[in-house]
Amino acid sequence: MNAVNKTLYIPLYGKSYVSKKGLFLQDKKAEEIWAAEGFPLKGKSRSKWLAYYMGIRSSVFDDWTRAQMAHNPGAVVLHIGCGMDSRVLRVGQKGHKWYDLDFPAVIQERKRYFAESDDYRMLAGNAAEPTWLERIPENECAIIVMEGISMYLSPAQLHTLIGGLCGHFKHIALLMDCYSALAASMSKYKNPINDVGVTTVYSMDDPLSLQKQDFTFVCARDMTPPAYIDALQGIEKHIFCKLYAGGFAKKLYRLYEYKKA
Question: Which residue, among 141, 158, 135, has the nearest Cα to 206 in the 3D structure?
């Protein structure tokens, strides 16, 4: 897999790590895959503080996805840039059709650990070239998860993706995390993704810049809710708050919700 594809091992390790510790989420599939793959992470990418952040981030996306599924019965769930994530197992489908999308090389690996069904499909494709939407027959309502992918799409590619989604689905609920311009500028030298060879990332400071016609910005959400941070104790809680939940961290990482009504 190329360098961008290899970034999937960072959140996979994080979810495996916190699952084993009984923190934030239970993800036996992540534990299974990590134990089998044994990808040699190093440096910051294997930091327990980053693992905690990855676990919390995934839990926040899980919570939002569950809420949207309850609010939009029968909606399609589309996870763009799924990597080896097992959200479909953690959240459950509950009568929804679910599509996981990633590059062909990632999907090839993913199929070693996940099985398709009538209501669950894995799509091989490039998020920046959304012709793969033609393989999703449903077009009424979609719950779209974009976790850890926007920073690998240029502004033009991100707009192309959003345009494709809006052209295919009548109604959309979308959640995505982004880097700020400050985070993107620092990432060439101070980002765990450097450990797997990635040095070019993109940012979005103004969430309104992604709006188009009836696709609108809803709100900014908390990336590290206190309820999850409180699962940590003592010095670990203090250090994590300084690294990932303090004022400086909030200048780097953003979580934006959008809708097409």
Answer: 158
CA separation, residue 138 to residues 41, 68, 78, 146, 168 (Å): 39, 17, 11, 19, 9
Beta bridge partners of 99: 78, 121
Task: Look at residues 112, 100, 53 and name the one whose alpha carbon lies nearest to residue 76.
Answer: 100
Mean pLDDT of the chain: 91
Residue pair 23/60 in contact by the 8 Å Cβ criterion: no
Q: How far apart are the two ends of the chain, measured CA to CA in Å?
A: 38
Locate tokens 């910051």: which residue? 44
pTM: 0.93
Q: Please give the helix or strand (H or E) that residue 124 lies within, else none.
A: strand 120-124
127: DSSP letter: T
Give 140-182 pLDDT, tens digit per residue.
999 999 999 999 999 999 999 999 999 999 999 999 999 999 9
CA–CA distances in Å: residue 214 to residues 65, 74, 109, 117, 134: 21, 22, 37, 33, 21
pLDDT digits (tens, 9 = 90+) for 24-34: 999 999 999 99
